[in-house]
Amino acid sequence: MKYFSLLIPILGSISAALQTMPYSVAGYAVGYILIASLDEFLKMILIGVTISTLSALLEEVAWRGFLRNELNVVSKVKAYFVTALIWSTWHIPIAVLYRYTDDIFVNTTLYCGQLFLFSLIMNWIRDKSNSVIPASLFHGMLNVFYF
Prior knowledge:
The chain has helices spanning 7-17, 38-70, 76-90, 92-97, 104-129, 133-145; strands at 23-25, 28-31. It is mainly α. It has one domain (2-145).
């Protein structure tokens, strides 16, 4: 059952990749995922499982490895929220460049809000698997298919 958590990021990414409609939050477009062909999809899976996951592993060792272990003195919920807050704040330089609208404040708020929620999911995956590897896989696939 422990290794089942490795499937969560892959299945979630496949599900996200199959979406073809734009969606919005508060009237702002926040995502559009379209895979043109099976060939492109398989290439993205390969990149997600290899290169992107390896780069995400470097982040996850720090956030869901070191920081999460340091936060074991507080409750799990507090640790999740603190990690999510720090992780989403860490990405503000990227958020400023990410373009949902012409308003930088709205862009940054929406992007960091999404990252906050994704971080909560990655914390849960890390705790269920007791490893940063599945969280890294989820993070890597997210980078390829969504961000």
